[in-house]
Amino acid sequence: MAIELLITIDKKRETALSRQVYGQILQAIAGGCLKSGDRLPATRLLSKQLLVSRSVVLEAYEQLQAEGYLEMRKGAGTFVAATAAEAGTSSPPVSGDGCTVATKAPEFISFDPLSSAAAYDFRHGVPAWDVFPMDRWQRALNEACRRATPDMLTYGPAEGSFALRDEIARLVRSTRSIPALPEQIVITTGATQALDILSRLCLSKGDQVLVEDPTHHVLREIFSFSGGEIIPVPVDQEGICVRDIDRCLAAYSQGPERTPKLLYVTPSHQFPIGVTLSFNRRIQLLEWARRSNALIIEDDYDSEYRYVGQKASALAGLDTSGRVVYVGSFSKILFPALRIGYAILPPALVEPFLAVKMITDRMTAAIEQEALADFIRSGQYARHIGRMGKLYATRRACLVEALQREFGDRVHILGDEAGLHLLIELQTAADELALAAEALRYGARIYPASGYYIGSRPEYPTFILGYANLSEHQIRLGIGAVARAEQALSRN
Ligand SMILES: Cc1ncc(COP(=O)(O)O)c(C=O)c1O
Asked: Alpha-carbon distance 490 to 405, whole Å?
């Protein structure tokens, strides 16, 4: 069957009619609407459709044939030539304004620096898929669908399901010592959206944002995209070095002196180093925020799992002056594709936050919120965390043991007391990226981490290793593969 050609002829234009037909067919080829082998309408039919004489269409077809875009097959009709796609890409746009849109999009961030599949993937930030209670989650979803009223299926409140906010309020009161009311909680499409909304809300071009150094590059992108000027502050064994904030402001500030607007921290399990912010530093940080009139964003992305020592109260739980926004996520406990996170806001910020949420996506998907509220209320959630905590503790111990066995005192392990990943510094002559690439050839994917550092660079190759989604057997084989890769590089 011939392709329908939706050509528009403007008889008032100076451009010859045949040239208009020619141009629009060429554009359809260049744009991929017409592909090699497509049959064009017969000249008689197209001329009727366009209300032009047949010679107009014939002239256009002949020109395109002469240039190699079309071919006439005797008795069969006119087709887009096999070589048309190549010819089409090299030709300039023939009509339209060749519009290019100036965007301020951040550089696209690939989460997989090495793209091919690996047998032992130490990807961080992902929970164990194999033991996720999918049947129970499915039941919660089915139940939420069964209970759904028309009200739940239309545009609901931007702040999200009351049932879920109520459960979260209970959860953070009992596990994070945050005395939050459901009215202060807004459900977001992952923690990422909460962080984006906060930066859009609080930052204007050139406003300063203090971040831990190292920190996640996605966070840097979020703050920079809203015009923020990133000021890195070093991290030591006690977490962010609060006493260094003024020095860092002086060292990194561009332009006239300003007061910083935001400070972003990961107190429970610093990303990526993994240290926990000490109690003294928490108090110092809150005091600093009060003095500087700045807002602290506490990203509590994986605080549920702690293997050594006591869990500390959240910074937001210690705050008495409404200077901390607490951001939580269900990505690490259930699964990232759920895309449910939340922000606990000082009361004065709730309305402005909701105004930005409204224009961003109106609301986060509702059925999943109801299912999650049910999952938490029924006790499944707490049981899942309990089970996973035990599993991850074994996987973590296995990883530490494997690293020590393979690398002895050449490996420095950081941040293994909590969360789903740890960081290693490896004393080796090998280059960080070269080692990651070689390890992949041996079947293990490890993630270079020096890119997270801003002001300083680690002395040795540094890698972030997630262990939650690998069995003990896989962990041993994977670290063995990394060791063999390192030996191979050292021999060369
Ligand atoms: C430090 C940190 N914060 C926030 C997030 C985002 O979480 P979410 O999936 O809820 O958007 C991640 C995801 O990996 C993370 O590593």
From this structure: 18
- Nearest-CA residue for atom 2 of ligand 1: 301
Which CB contacts under 8 angstroms, 24+ apart, belong to 70-77? 70/25, 70/40, 76/39, 77/2, 77/39, 77/40, 77/42
Q: Which atom of ligand 1 lies at the shortest distance from residue 329's CA?
A: 10
Cβ < 6 A, ligand 1 pocket: 125, 190-192, 216, 266, 271, 299, 301, 329, 331, 336, 341
Number of domains comprising the chain: 3
Which residue is closest in CA terms to ligand 1's atom 3? 301
Report the pLDDT value the prediction gives residue 107, as an integer from 0 to 100.
Answer: 62
Dist. CA 301 → ligand 1 center (Å): 6
User: Do 372 and 392 fall into the same domain?
Assistant: no
191 and 290 in a single domain? The answer is: yes
Quote the pTM value: 0.81
User: For residue range 313-334, what is the model confidence (pLDDT) as tens digits?
Assistant: 899 999 999 999 999 999 999 9
CATH code: domain of residue 193? 3.40.640.10
Identify the domain containing residue 148 by its residue range: 134-378
The Å distance, Cα 329 to ligand 1 centre, comes to 7
Classify residue 337 by its DSSP letter.
G
CB 21 within 8 A of CB 9: yes
Contact (Cβ atoms closer than 8 angstroms) between residue 288 and residue 241: no
Q: Shortest CA distance to 133 belongs to which of 422, 382, 319?
A: 382
Is the residue at 178 inside a domain? yes
Q: Ligand 1 centre from 201 Cα, in Å? A: 19
